[in-house]
Amino acid sequence: MFGRKSKRGASLATVLVSMAILAIVATMFTAIAMRSYQYSYAKLCKQQAYYTAISTIESYYQTIRQSSEHLSSMISALEDAYEKAKSEENGLHVDPTRVSVKVGSSGGADSSGMLVDGGFFDTYLGECELYVRYANSNRSEISIEAHATYNGYTETARAKVARTNLAASELKKIFDNTFCLQ
Fold first, then answer.
1. How many of the other CB atoms lie within 10 Å of CB of 40?
2. CA-CA to 119 of 20 to 30 Å: which in 8, 55, 128, 153?
3. pTM (2 d.p.)
C-alpha cells in the first residue's frame, strides 16, 4: 500500500512538471509570435509612410509638369523665400539649398499660403507634409521632399527635378528618384 501512494505522488509530480514545461514553452512561443507581429506591424507602417511620401512627390511632380503656371508660382515662392532669408542675414551668403517652401500639408485645414489646396492630400493615408527647395547652390535643380507619418512611424522621401533629359539621366546614375521637366 505504501508503494502505491508513492507511485501516485510520482505521477502527480510528473504531470505538474510536464504542465509547467508546456506552460513555459507556450509562453515562449507566444512571446516570439508577439514580437514577430510587432516587427511586421512596424515594418508595414514604415512602408506605408514611405509609399505615401513617394506617391505625394510623384503627384506633385505631375502637377508642376502639367501646369506651367504652378511651376512658375513654385519657383517665385522659392525665390521669395531665398530673398527673405538673404534679407534676414543682412546680405550675407545664404545657402539656397537650406531654404525651403512648404507646398502643403494633409494635417492643416487652412491651406492659405500653400502651393496646393487641401484636397491634394485627400487620397493619402496618414499625415504628409510636402516641401520644395533648391537642390544645388546655383538654383538650377529643384528638390521635392515629403515627410509622411502613418500610425506613429515617419518616413521621408525626396526627388530631384532636372530641366533636361540629359541632366535627368546623369542624376539617375547617382539618385533614384529623378524627374525631368522637359
1. 10
2. 153
3. 0.70
Chain centroid, CA 144 distance in Å: 13
Cβ distance 154 to 148 under 8 Å?
A: yes
Strands 127-134 and 100-105: antiparallel
Distance of CA 176 to the CA centre of its chain: 16
The residue count of the chain comes to: 182
Q: Which of 97, 103, 102, 95 is nearest to 142 (CA)?
A: 97
Per-residue pLDDT tens digits for 26-46: 999 999 999 999 999 999 999
Within 10 Å of residue 55's Cβ, how many Cβ atoms?
17
Ranges of H-type helices in the chain: 2-66, 68-88, 165-172
What strand order describes the sheet that includes 100-105?
100-105, 127-134, 142-150, 153-162, 178-180
